[in-house]
Design a protein that fits this description.
Elements lengths: L8 H14 L36 H17 L3 H11 L7 H18 L2 H21 L4 H8 L15 H4 L2 H18 L5 H20 L6 H7 E5 L17 H10 L4 H10 L4 H11 E3 L1 H14 L13 H12 L5 H12 L3 E2 L5 E7 L2 E4 H4 L8 E2 L17 H15 L5 E2 L19 H12 L1 H22 L3 H11 L3 H4 L1 H18 L2 H18 L4 H8 L10 H4 L2 H15 L6 H20 L11 H5 L7 H13 L15 H4 L12 H11 L3 H10 L4 H11 L1
Antiparallel strand pairs: 1-2, 3-4, 4-5, 6-7
Helix pairs in contact: 2-3, 2-8, 4-5, 5-6, 8-13, 9-28, 11-12, 12-13, 18-20, 18-21, 20-21, 20-27, 21-23, 23-24, 23-27, 25-30, 32-33, 32-34
Amino acid sequence: MDESTPVNWEALDALVVDFANSENLFFDDNHSSSLSPPSSPSSSSLSPPSPSSSSSSSSSYQSRLLIRQIRRLLESGDVDSTLDLLRLHAPSILQDLRLLFCLQKQKFIELLRRGTPEDRDSAFQCLRTSLAPCALDAYPEAYEEFKHILLALIYDKDDTNSPVATEWSERRRFEIAGLMSSIMRAHLQAHDPLFSMTLRYLISVHKEFCLRQGVPSPISDLTERLLLEDKDTPATPQESLVELPPICEEDVQALAHAVQLTRQGAVYSLRFAKGDLVQAFQNELCRMRLHVSTLDELVREYCVYRGIVDPVVPSSGSRLLADAAHLKASKLNATDVSMDCSLDADCGNSKNSDDGSSIVNAHVDGTEISTDMIRMQDTDVEMRFPCEGTSNHDDCSTSGTHQTTNSRIFQRNRSHEIGEVRRRKRWRERNDDPHFPAGTLSNESNKQEGSEKHSPSDSNYKEDRCETVLSIKDLADRGMAAEVVEEVNTLDPEFFGQNPLLLFQLKQVEFLKLVDSGDYSGALKVACTHLGPLAANDKDLLKPLKETLLALLRPNEIDFKRDLPVHALASSLQVAIGRRLGIEEPQLMKVMQATLHTHTEWFKLQMCKDRFESFLKIDTLKEVNSLLLADTVSKSQIDAHSHGSSQLTISSSGGNPEDSNSPTQVSSQEVCDEGAILKVMEFVALPRADAIHLLAQYNGNAESVIQHIFAEI
């Protein structure tokens, strides 16, 4: 399994941030209610948060909260509260008499399960006033089911051999809860965030590929924890929807093989979605259940690594204190520069508290502000003021100059961003679901966090290394290649000796930046001093070197800020330097690399393009900017000649451009007709690849294939 598959980390950043915003995982201090986190819903407080609360950032989020509440109520057997919530927030759902009859049957069983005389009387009342009348109109078989459920009056719930053992089973609760979730998601258009659906799909394709090809998965421990085996019960169409126009067989097969459905299951799903393929696809993806706390753990780890959120998570006891510090600091933001200077002046006077935390003596309005408090600032972001000498822990760089380097890098950043604070979001633990408690992590993460709690210096040590890498990445993101090389050499003089390609790319950026500014002599000096010797030691770099030098001929055809893939280079640099400092990439990176690789390989086997990759942004995740910037120069010049523009679309590195998004440019149409492929898939229920291989043996004749299959049966 190729774990070095290139991924567009900037596209993944956007998906992850959208997911966290949609799930309300970032603090939003614009609302006063954010000072106290929303309490977990319970059966005693059944209404979802009001639209004015901070936790209701969107109607979709509100609807998902409602669905989660109803799921928990049904799983606990509280049908009455479920019906109350539905009547209040989604009364139209109860117009489906099939669903209402199902809920009334379960209510009858739950009343009998309680076993008290009062509840038994309530069960009889339910029979007379609700269940029997509903059975007359729900659907043709409903009355027979009504008579069958009456057997629960004489057969005990512990009798596993009774005719109503299935109705008595507590598993029935979860089936109904899943069915209700499926129906409500479609009815309220409350599908999960796009990243959540993309992850489900990629993992399911990954599992299918590994199973069919007989190869081990390098991320099986993560995928087993993330994607649960159980799916929600599918929602079936009402009888009135059965008369829809015939559904395209191509859509049926695409849906069936995308989410592992039978053909009939795909037909039902499309009919329920009124023939809308994308809608049906979303419904089926959301039936797959993710372990929410594991997903949140992976997302937060990734966000910390990428510098999106602050690594410090406030405990419930200190959260109010941190927010109070934020409100205090927010008043001081109008004087960023003066406050920045005052903090710098006081950094040398910082003192350590007994528990190892650093206190900064920034006396503003007579208030002493700790660095831990400062880290928790801003509305949906965080303000950090790195200070020299805040800790005396051991050196953590490979060159023995880490502590000094940290300060130099921070000062370099600040000299280029005077008065501009470094902004990060603040993580908010999910706390609306008691089944996935806030702060629940994997055993491995718990052990790691536990050790860090007992070793504050180790935690600071790790955080400082991460800050060092992020600071260098920030420089690279701004195209400050010369400064990056200087800082990396100070940090680790041996780094570029072991990573010459990264040095070549950085010097390309420096060269092209000088050309862009009109400093041609300076650009030539960089080429002579660095690019030339590097290319002399690696013949593969000669061609990129020649193409890079072409920029001298047409300097106005390259827009430095727009055309150069500096963000991709910055990400590569972050990973490489992080590894040198012992910082492991987040697990989500491993998941995305492995699943995107198997997605590409899977559709090579299927000899077709994935119809859903654009909707799920998979094609964007594979659009990795070329690692060799010379490709950008060549592409700019080609576009300038053929289209009169230097606008470009950069292909994936290390192979043909079509390998990343359309892996089957040698399509199945060269083997046989698409109609024949669909016909064999429909009648023989075969995967696309198997159908194509069979057709190839029979000269593309679908009838011959079908006759051969049935003759063997």
